[in-house]
Design brief:
By secondary structure, this protein is of the alpha/beta class. Helix content is 49%, strand content 13%. It has 8 helices and 6 strands. The chain has a 6-stranded parallel sheet, with helices on both faces. Strand 2, helix 3 and strand 3 form a beta-alpha-beta unit. The longest helix has 43 residues.
């Protein structure tokens, strides 16, 4: 009886080992196939050019993502500049840090449109900020330009869409541009190389939690 039990036990162990080996082999085969697909895409992607990235949608994190790219850029010893088209009446933590490492900031400075309630003033401020943006979009020494919240300026018709498209099309060939903001115009989306849409699932503000320094701004 004892011998029979040992044979049965060894048979079960052998089956379990074979099953584990089969799973491991299948996993390796799947990963190898995945690697071949990724390697093929890497091999095919040989062009280099300035990328136009649009970060849009109603979710939180668009500007934060844009500033992350600016940080990456200067971390590689490259040059970046930022134009902020909507700026509230509070400090900007990213600006506090990035200006210290040579990132130029141009700030519209009027805050949110529901704060100013003055269209003429907003249009004039937007025009001034856009003129700064146009200069940056002609500067070959700047590797990355972040046009933060630009989409609102087009939506509100503070800045002419045709001027934006023209400047983006005529920028230096290797210059990267990031545009953030909700409801990006379809013509800009069509022009972009990469578009990411941030969607809200939950937001602390809707539960009565105020914007907090060091996390929200």
């Amino acid at each position: 009886m004892e011998k029979s039990e040992n044979v049965t036990h060894n048979s079960i162990e052998s089956t379990e080992v074979n099953h584990a080996d089969t799973k491991a082999q299948r996993h390796k085969a799947r990963q190898q196939k995945l690697k071949e697909g990724v390697d093929a895409k890497i091999a095919a992607a040989q062009d280099e050019k300035g990328i136009l990235l649009v970060l849009t949608g109603n979710g939180k994190g668009k500007s934060t993502s844009g500033f992350g790219a600016v940080t990456r850029c200067v971390g590689h010893g490259q040059k970046a500049a930022v134009v902020q088209f909507i700026k509230g009446g509070w400090e900007c933590g990213e600006r506090n840090l990035l200006e210290k490492v040579g990132v130029e900031f141009y700030v519209m400075g009027t805050g949110f449109t529901w704060e100013t309630q003055d269209r003429e003033k907003d249009v004039a401020a937007a025009e001034s900020a856009w003129q700064d943006a146009e200069k940056l979009l002609k500067d070959e020494s700047i590797n990355l330009v972040l046009l933060d919240e630009l989409t609102y300026m087009v939506t509100y018709k503070y800045i002419d869409l045709a001027r934006v498209i023209e400047a983006l099309n005529n920028r230096p060939p290797m210059q990267h541009v990031i545009i953030t903001g909700r409801a990006c115009h379809r013509d800009i989306i069509e022009l972009a190389d990469t578009v990411s849409e941030v969607q809200p699932i939950k937001h602390a503000f809707n539960d009565g939690i105020k914007a907090q320094i060091g996390f929200d701004y």
